[in-house]
Design brief:
The protein has helices at about 35-45, 60-65, 150-155, 155-165, 220-235, and strands at about 5, 10-15, 20-25, 50, 95, 100, 105, 115, 130-135, 145, 165-170, 190-195, 195-200, 205, 215, 240-245, 250-255, 260-265, 275-280. Strands 1-2-3-4-17-9-19-5 form an eight-stranded mixed beta sheet, with helices on one face. A four-stranded antiparallel beta sheet has the order 8-18-10-16. Strands 12-11-15 form a three-stranded antiparallel beta sheet. Helices cover about 20% and strands about 30% of the residues. The protein binds fe (ii) ion.
């Protein structure tokens, strides 16, 4: 189903519940007010929006990000940027496995990541994350996006009733402690947020816990909470709620952290992968 929203912009859904490719715009040029409104509507409607075949400067990526809200600060400064990519720090982060003198030049360098919401361990996680793809491996490294709306709408009513109104605890643990291999990092920030989050713009509810970072439920023993959380993790990660994105160079993709989770597939460690990441700052988490 193709839906024309402006004279130039075409919105093509990528799966039943999440994702749309937006065609017809050159993002290296400033957008009209009508197009900015249309891409914001598409983002709200589809959670993940994709633009293919773009060539952006760092200024372009920051301008594009600002169409969706205040550009967010980075959680941590990058250590190094290659020539031509160091001017507008600190609001652009490199996601890369490329190594200089044995050290990764970007964040989150290697391998797969379980489903998560970015920055959920903060009091006010950012609303969205944008990735602009510059180098990709020949295979692997897909990003999977799961709709939290679809998961909420279809979750078992009896289990939902037990979790409605509760808050979950989250902590930063980008690593693999939960796999038991001891490679996880120490928690350095943690937070509590509603298990089911109401989106401040759409008014819809979505699941707001994830397998990578959620550790428990407030006011509930771990014995009682863990089976409920496991059921919710399993439900939110069902294939029917997911869009799998296979990256191409020149892709610009923005996802809504308020109502979706994402995960990354493994990819060959000896092939270069480089993306530039910006964020849309958080606004409010309704309680
Ligand atoms: Fe992420």
């Amino acid at each position: 189903m193709n839906v024309m929203t402006t004279s130039k912009l075409e919105v093509v859904p990528l799966s039943k519940h999440i994702g749309a490719e937006l065609r017809g715009l050159d993002l290296s040029q400033p957008l009209s007010e009508a197009d900015v409104a249309a891409i914001n509507k598409a983002w709200l409607d589809h959670i993940v929006i994709l633009f293919r075949g773009q060539r952006l400067s760092q200024e372009d990526q920051l301008r594009l990000t600002a169409y969706f809200g205040e550009v967010g600060a980075l959680g941590r400064p990058p250590k190094y940027f290659p020539p031509g990519f160091n001017k507008l720090l600190p609001k652009i982060m490199m996601i890369s496995n490329i190594r200089e003198n044995g050290e990764p030049i970007g964040a989150l360098p290697d391998g797969e990541m379980m489903f998560h919401h970015d920055m959920i361990h903060h009091d006010l996680p950012h609303n969205g994350t944008m990735l602009y793809s510059l180098e990709i491996p020949t295979y692997g490294g897909d990003t999977l996006f799961a709709s939290g709306y679809a998961a909420y709408d279809t979750f078992d009513p009896a289990l939902k009733a037990k979790l409605e109104g509760k808050k979950a605890r989250h902590h930063y643990n980008y690593g693999s402690t939960q796999k038991g291999d001891g490679k996880g990092t120490e928690a350095f920030a943690q937070s509590c947020h509603p298990v089911f989050r109401t989106h401040d713009q759409s008014g819809r509810k979505s699941t707001y816990v994830n397998r990578l970072m959620t550790t428990g439920i407030e006011g509930m023993s771990d014995q009682e909470a863990q089976p409920l959380l496991d059921a919710l993790f399993d439900h939110t990660e069902k294939p029917e709620f997911i869009y799998r994105h296979q990256w191409k160079v020149g892709d610009v993709l923005l996802w809504d952290n308020r109502c979706s989770t994402h995960a990354r597939d493994d990819f060959p460690a000896d092939q270069r992968r480089l993306m530039l990441r910006t964020t849309v700052a958080g606004t409010v988490i309704p309680t």
